[in-house]
């Protein structure tokens, strides 16, 4: 990877990715592995992080994290990144789903599926650093940062991209395919007039790490309360030392959020205790809290000639089911597989037939995952009389009926996606965890 904030005028890249967040960086790596002869440019508004490389990583108590499904571990393994990621990944060996104040509950165990974990919890910062360390080994990936994609337009046989460099100058790039990975508030999606469907959940997610008197024993708790769902994910790494920290996702009404945010640290722990119960003993500490308004955002037609949306630009889901980035990764593998086919046929990467084939290949997974997340919120979030009994019946039923439980587990584990062949060997996996490669600077 080369890094610069000054794109040369009119330069051509086979693929330009707007946004170097988790989705954009994962796509760049997947492309570099699958089609190493293709030139890729990633444009990212924020400067490139270059301080702590994975070897010197210090986990922070307040770090935000992502639950990676088992299927995402397989994808990162294919990309040669898993051995690096695993050093700081907390395995989820059990998932306990319950309904506050009712008897219904279901339990999933990795052992029942003959796997070492159902998924993993990884700090977003660690994930980003591992991706960057791997991308540093990929000379075909050029990283423009800080730089912002300002406009995207069609031109005969190509897509034209205007980039504002860090020094304020405007540059033209040309590409076969422009990927919008510019996040949930995608300005480029709006600028290009993609139709967006948005449904506000009327709730906020409060995110914080919490300490508990009892060890999490690598168990994730999904708990449904009359005020909305909450999740506690095991956190703190694979070793037993930090086994009393969990990552909290707590959905709250706007009023309840105000009350929690106005409370003292001890009072916050007490309110959480009241909502969650005592399965992990007493809550002893709650770290820095951040919160987000929640809505379901989908783009029914995420492709057009020369342009495709991925990651949060294509879909933003309720975080309680932990599916957003996992779905994005499966979308990325489906897209890369179609790019490989286009490459073999000699077609342009951004041809409408290639992008439509991607959309079609990913559609069923996309629909299933959106419905899975959304139905969890509706079934378990609504205070509708009588629904509690149905939920009890549903959870108990899920616990007893093996095929239903397997279905639920497969959704949670993110299994079933096809994966392309990547052209790399084991050294790539090892290299992802190493530091010390300098970044070429051009100014
Ligand atoms: C509270 C919460 C908890 C979550 N938990 C989970 C979980 O447990 N499991 C899971 O799978 N998913 C989870 N998700 C979803 C997951 O975080 C997202 O799917 C993931 O971060 C998507 O990243 P992205 O790269 O698409 O977007 P972003 O992370 O928003 O990245 C977009 C990037 O684009 C850059 N950018 C924007 N505009 C431009 C431009 N014009 N030019 C250049 N660069 C630009 C931005 O600087 C940014 O770096 C959660 C989400 C939330 C909100």
TrEMBL record:
One Pfam family from the record: FAD_binding_3
Keywords recorded for this protein, A-Z: FAD, Flavoprotein, Monooxygenase, Oxidoreductase
Keyword Ion transport: no
Family matches, as InterPro entries: FAD-bd (IPR002938), FAD/NAD-bd_sf (IPR036188), UbiH/COQ6 (IPR010971), UbiH/COQ6_monooxygenase (IPR051205)
Enzyme superclass (EC): oxidoreductase
Domain of life according to the entry: Bacteria
Coiled coil (UniProt feature): none
E.C. no: 1.14.13.-
Annotated metabolic or biological route of this protein: Cofactor biosynthesis; ubiquinone biosynthesis
The keyword Nucleotide-binding is assigned to this record: no
Cofactor requirement: FAD
Domain FAD-binding: 14-372
Molecular functions (GO terms): oxidoreductase activity
Family: Belongs to the UbiH/COQ6 family.
Protein name: 2-octaprenyl-6-methoxyphenyl hydroxylase
Record organism: Marinobacter xestospongiae
Lineage: Bacteria, Pseudomonadati, Pseudomonadota, Gammaproteobacteria, Pseudomonadales
Encoding gene, per UniProt annotation: ubiH
């Amino acid at each position: 990877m080369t890094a610069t904030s000054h794109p040369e005028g009119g330069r051509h890249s086979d693929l330009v990715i707007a946004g170097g967040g988790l989705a954009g960086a994962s796509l760049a790596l997947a492309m570099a592995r699958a089609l190493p002869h293709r030139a890729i440019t990633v444009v990212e508004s924020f400067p490139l992080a270059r301080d702590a490389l994975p070897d010197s990583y210090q986990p922070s108590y307040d770090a935000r994290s992502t639950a990676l499904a088992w299927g995402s571990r397989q994808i990162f393994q294919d990309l040669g990144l898993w051995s690096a990621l695993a050093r700081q990944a907390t395995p989820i060996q059990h998932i306990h789903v319950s309904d506050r104040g009712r008897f219904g509950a279901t339990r999933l165990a990795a052992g029942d599926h003959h796997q070492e974990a159902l998924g993993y919890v990884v700090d977003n910062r660690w994930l980003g650093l591992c991706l960057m360390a791997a991308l540093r080994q990929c000379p075909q990936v050029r990283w423009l940062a800080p730089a912002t994609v300002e406009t995207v337009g069609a031109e005969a046989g190509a897509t034209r991209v205007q980039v504002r460099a860090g020094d304020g100058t405007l540059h033209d790039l040309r590409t076969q395919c422009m990927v919008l990975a510019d996040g949930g508030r995608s300005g480029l999606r709006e600028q290009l007039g993609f139709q967006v469907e948005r449904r506000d959940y009327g709730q906020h997610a409060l995110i914080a790490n919490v300490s508990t008197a009892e060890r999490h024993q690598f168990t994730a708790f999904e708990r449904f309360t009359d005020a909305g769902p909450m999740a506690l994910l095991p956190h703190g790494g694979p070793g037993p030392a930090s086994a009393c920290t969990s990552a909290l996702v707590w959905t709250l009404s706007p009023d309840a959020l105000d009350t929690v945010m106005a409370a003292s640290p001890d009072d916050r722990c007490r309110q959480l205790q009241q909502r969650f119960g005592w399965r992990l003993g007493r809550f002893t500490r709650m770290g820095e809290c951040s919160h987000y308004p929640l809505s379901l955002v989908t783009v029914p037609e995420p492709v057009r000639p020369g342009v495709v949306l991925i990651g949060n630009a294509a879909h933003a889901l309720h975080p309680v089911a932990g599916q957003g980035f996992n779905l994005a990764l499966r979308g990325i593998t489906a897209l890369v597989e179609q790019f490989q086919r286009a490459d073999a046929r000699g077609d342009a990467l951004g041809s409408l037939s290639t992008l439509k084939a991607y959309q079609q290949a990913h559609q069923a997974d996309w629909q299933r995952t959106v419905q899975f997340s959304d139905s969890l919120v509706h079934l378990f979030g609504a205070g509708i009389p009588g629904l509690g009994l149905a939920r009890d019946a549903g959870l108990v039923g899920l616990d007893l009926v093996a095929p239903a439980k397997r279905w639920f587990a497969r959704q949670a584990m993110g299994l079933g996606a096809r994966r392309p062949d990547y052209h790399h060997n084991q050294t790539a996996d090892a290299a992802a965890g190493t530091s010390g490669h300098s970044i070429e600077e051009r100014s």
